[in-house]
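Work Package 3 (structural annotation) set out to generate three-dimensional models for the target panel prioritized at the project kickoff. During this period the team completed the workflow that converts sequence records into discrete structure tokens, so that structures can be stored uniformly alongside our sequence database. As a representative example, we reproduce one entry of 387 residues exactly as it appears in the project archive.
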Amino acid sequence: MTIRLALVAGARPNFMKVAPLIRALRRTSGFRWRLIHTGQHYDREMSGVFFDELGIPQPNVSLECGGGTQAEQTAKTMVALERDLTAHPVDCVVVVGDVNSTVAAALAAKKLQLRLAHVEAGLRSGDRTMPEEINRLVTDSISDLFLVTEPSGIQALLREGHDPTSIRHVGNLMIDNLFHQLERLQAADPAQYQTTALKAGLERTGYGVVTLHRASNVDDRATLTGLIGALNEISRQLPLVFPVHPRTHARMQSFGLAAADAVRLTSPLSYMEFLNLWKDARVVLTDSGGLQEETTALGVKCVTMRTTTERPITLTEGSNVLAGTEPAAVVAAARAALGSPASVRRPALWDGHSAERIVAELRDFLQPPRTPAARPRPAVTVVQAAR
């Protein structure tokens, strides 16, 4: 039996997770898959370059559903996906992460009564003002197979009443991709990446790296003003390199905010350029979810400028600190991080082999059992995986 999959991706973080899954599927017989690009991120800086660097093949279809409000984007994606999935039947739709493309694909799949697998299931911040939290809750409420990155995801799904036999602790695709790209980076000519120039002159003092894009941080004038002020203060102790997200750049301009000279503003970087930059940073200041995980995997100190995180394992076992968004607290957290020794405590199953486990779980889930007793799995399997 050949298992037919639709892999749906549309935003920058999705691409980083789909890449190792595609590599694993290419090495495995018995699968036929289609890559569907929803177009949530549709300019080259935020999308196309990742296909080149991550080795992702050109998608089978590009739905071009970017732009508009969240509701408009979700609705356009659902309509386009319904047409595509009707024309190209599959056995399972695989969605990753928590962006608008994720929830739109989940809804379209279940309206067509297709099976749905969610990679990164169960992550919860507890903050329903975050659009991503709503996307996570809705997607998981209708998923059939939950592919979990950390024990907190298992616990959340069990609290919400999901069948334990459908929950599989597989590790983290983001870390698979990180290790793969690190190998490529180490084998490449350092001059190939623009970040060589960004690091120039910072060898003696070291530097920090900043990412800031979350709507709650950049769309509110008072919050963004405070955070830029905190970055300016931190830069008095440590120079910062800040690749500015287009949304953040627009808000800084409209609010009349200026960064200090020691905060080097750059255009958005490609994945490899950015990895080449932050892997050597003394500290990363971010409001990104994925970067909390990646810094933990490499033991790079991370200060998260948010009041909640859906990735608590990065706090309990990783190198991440949750600082909040008050300027004084961000400055204090950064200074504390700079004054503490580095350590690497990599969470269980963040070993670079999550994609292989996911492919195995998809095969187990989608292939009919040879005997009635072959499935379901006992609930104790999930409990043991959480330890």
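Confidence is low (pLDDT under 50) at residues 372-376, 378-387.
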